[in-house]
From TrEMBL:
Protein name as annotated: Endoplasmic reticulum aminopeptidase 2
SUPFAM superfamilies recorded: Leukotriene A4 hydrolase N-terminal domain, Metalloproteases ('zincins'), catalytic domain
GO biological process, one term: proteolysis
Molecular functions (GO terms): metalloaminopeptidase activity; peptide binding; zinc ion binding
Length: 345
């Protein structure tokens, strides 16, 4: 019996060792190989085998072939200016992205979907300091991966910051993703249009060129141009409103906390609101179309209680100075819970 037990243990060890060998060969080694592909710079990969890379819409070689963005350039801050036209149902916009270059590169890869890029330029820290004009960049597009490549004239140096400026335009989307148009009907039968965002999980790229992956967190400063009959809302409280020519107004919002692109939100509408303050000092507002304003008070009362509940439950103070929701309270219940979690991921 003792001999049989020894033989059984030996067989078990042999089988276990064989399993470990196969596991390492099938699972661990491929991952090591995959990781090793990213230890070399994107430029080295492109120069080594340019034929392995896809072709951009203009016929040139697109310098990146992965679905995920390279991490040699990371965003630090976005400065967005958006001007939607609720009559023509399109929008024009511009952005400046402050980026940090972690490794020398000659291109920057961003996400962009259904956006028309008008022009792009680059400024170094020195250019920004001395207010020098930016260098124009060549823009390549690869729609299959919803990516664009900004080709720089000279290689970007590691550990330096640069500012990327992009002008672009697009139609307001027809569905419920990205920056899209929505409508509602008044009691008098009039159909009105509003412009709304919904970027989760990867649709911020439909509203502005960006590093549209949760890994790439940054701060966002948002400005929205609108007509006087509309209001503009965003993640943060409004700082000021500037009057422009042609009767337009430009709302400036506070800079957000550091967060992923899919948490960015803004809307242009003619809604009215009711507001209150939670016990922690956070301003809570409920927005609805003018005909539905009378239905917002119960939603506000419930929202204030829910915010207090979640702060106590998670033992986390809500990190933003305000919380705005639309009329349907069921949306607030789930979204508030997720906001607590996602802002800290």
């Amino acid at each position: 019996v003792f001999y049989s037990s020894i033989m059984a243990n030996s067989c078990r060890k042999l089988i276990f060792n064989i399993y470990i060998v196969f596991y390492c060969s099938a699972v661990i080694m491929p991952q090591i190989c995959i990781c090793s592909q990213f230890t070399s710079s994107p430029i080295d990969q492109f120069n080594k085998d340019p034929k392995a890379f896809p072709v951009a819409t203009n016929g040139e070689m697109f310098p990146w072939h992965e679905l995920r963005l390279p991490t040699v350039v990371i965003p630090l801050h976005y400065d967005l200016l958006i001007h939607p036209n609720l009559t023509s149902l399109d929008f024009v916009a511009s952005e400046k992205i402050e980026v940090l270059v972690r490794d020398a590169t000659q291109f920057i890869i961003l996400h962009s979907k259904d956006l028309e890029i008008l022009n792009a330029s680059l400024q170094s820290e020195e250019d920004v300091r001395y207010k020098k004009p930016g260098e124009n960049l060549t823009v390549l597009s690869y729609p299959a991966h919803q990516q664009i490549a900004l080709l720089v004239p000279e290689k970007l140096r590691a550990h330096l910051r640069y500012s990327v400026a992009i002008d672009f335009q697009a139609k307001l989307a027809d569905g419920f993703e990205g920056f899209y148009k929505s409508t509602y009907r008044t009691l008098g039968g009039e159909t009105r249009t509003i412009a709304v965002t919904d970027f989760e999980p990867t649709e911020a790229r439909m509203a502005f060129p960006c590093f549209d992956e949760p890994l790439f967190k940054a701060n966002f400063s948002i400005k929205i141009r609108r007509e006087s009959r509309h209001i503009a809302l965003s993640n943060m409280p409004k700082v000021k409103t500037i009057e422009l020519e042609g009767g337009l107004l430009e709302d400036h919002f506070e800079t957000t906390v550091r967060m992923s692109t899919y948490l960015v939100a803004y809307i242009v509408c003619d809604f009215t609101s009711v507001s209150g303050t939670a016990s922690s000092g956070v301003k809570v507002s409920i927005y609805a179309s003018p005909d539905k304003w009378s239905q917002t008070h119960y939603a506000l009362e419930a929202s204030l209680k829910l915010l207090d509940f979640y702060e106590n439950y998670f033992d986390i103070h809500y990190p933003l100075p305000k919380l705005g929701r639309f009329k349907f309270i069921i949306v607030f219940i789930f979204r508030t819970c997720f906001d607590f979690i996602r802002l800290y991921m």
